[in-house]
Amino acid sequence: MRLIKGLIMAIGVIGILVILALITGFYLYSLSPSILGRAVPVAVTADAAQSFDDKLKSADTQIKAAVEAREKREVSLVITENEANSKLVQMLAEGQLPLKRILINFGDGYFLTYAVLDAPVIDAKTGTIGRIEIVDGKPKIAVDEFNLGKLPLPESAKARVEQLANIMVSLQLADVPLDITSVQIKDRQLTITGTTKTGE
Known about the structure:
42% of the residues lie in helices and 31% in strands. With 200 residues, the chain is of the alpha+beta class.
């Protein structure tokens, strides 16, 4: 009888510890990540969002013209921090992203993102710091730091975020006839340079 009572008490204590761990986990999950402290607010405007669209359209026109002429031509695209954030805020307002908030900073050689994902019960607050490298004519994202609230995460979480980001980039660039030759992040700008493919 004493053994059964002891087992029931042990199970009860384990249950209480699991509940406390869940409460602590939810609390840490709901906090802002430490990366947010390094983020710089960026002013957003409708003009900057339009400028983003205009620059993409111009680059697309240049690429198509070079491909039709079967010419290898260098194409550069410069996006400012203001333009990127303005476009993202516009997309948020139109319901195109599953987020409540997003902020991107372009530092010297790195990017920083802070996002609040619209999740059931408690919103997920994430922070990422990373770089963009060129591998075989394609951009590859390298994640240096990833935070999900204040939860302590294993290194594998950072690797999974990096893998997911690279899959998304590959899908977006799959049909773009451009070999990316350089990506620079400096002076609050992202500069992408590439050479058009001739199809030969």
